[in-house]
Amino acid sequence: MRTGAVGLLLVMLASGCASQGGRVDREMVLPAVAERHELDDRQRFLMAVPVSVPMPVFPEDLRLRTQAVVCASFVVDTDGNTVDVGTAEQGPACVGSAGSDAAHYARLRAVVEDALAQWTWFGAAVCTFPDGVEPDDACRTEGVAIRPVPLRLDYRFVFAPGGRVSVGRGTARD
């Protein structure tokens, strides 16, 4: 009986170690030098709204000792596609990857880029209201001119050892 209990304990411990993966959190970041556009009193900005934003898949065979951070910048084009994706190690929002193994970091950047290539959006737009019409944030008034605009966004992805995939919300950037 005692041998069976020890064997069961060893199997449980081994399976726990074998299934230990990681988790991925994401947040939108606003750089201190973000470009701003002035709208006149007859205009409103409609922020891009995510339609499909799958999280990066944490590589099952990757074992991190500490968290790793991947920062990404991309453009939501006027059709709602994610284009011009780039990842970076530097910048104030990207602190946390110091000491990451270069091969591990390259794999994490690749999974972020793969996920971002699948992101789709209801694109951003600027609404211009005709004279005599009170502007509202819905932009649904008759006669409103809606002009789709591209939008650059920055995200920070944090890969942490253990746990499961979770999603965080950050600050929007226009």
Describe this structure in words.
The protein is of the alpha+beta class. The protein is built from two helices and nine strands, in the order αβββββαββββ. It has helices at 2-19, 102-116, and strands at 22-29, 43-46, 49-52, 68-76, 82-88, 120-122, 125-128, 145-148, 151-161. The strands form three sheets. Strands 1-9-4-5 form a four-stranded antiparallel beta sheet, with helices on one face. A three-stranded antiparallel beta sheet has the order 2-7-8, with no helix packed on it. Residues 1-20 and 163-174 have low confidence and may be disordered.
- How many helices? 2
By secondary-structure content and strand pairing, the structural class works out as alpha+beta
Number of extended strands? 9
User: Span between N and C termini?
Assistant: 66 Å
Fraction in beta strands: 25-35%
Please estimate the helix content.
10-25%
Short synopsis of the structure:
The chain is 19% helix and 31% strand. The chain has 174 residues and is α+β, with helices and mostly antiparallel strands.
Give the arrangement of secondary structure elements.
Layout: H1 2-19, E1 22-29, E2 43-46, E3 49-52, E4 68-76, E5 82-88, H2 102-116, E6 120-122, E7 125-128, E8 145-148, E9 151-161
Antiparallel strand pairs: 1-9, 2-7, 3-6, 4-5, 4-9, 7-8
Characteristic key phrases:
4-stranded antiparallel beta sheet, disordered C terminus, 174 residues, alpha+beta, 3-stranded antiparallel beta sheet, disordered N terminus, 31% strand
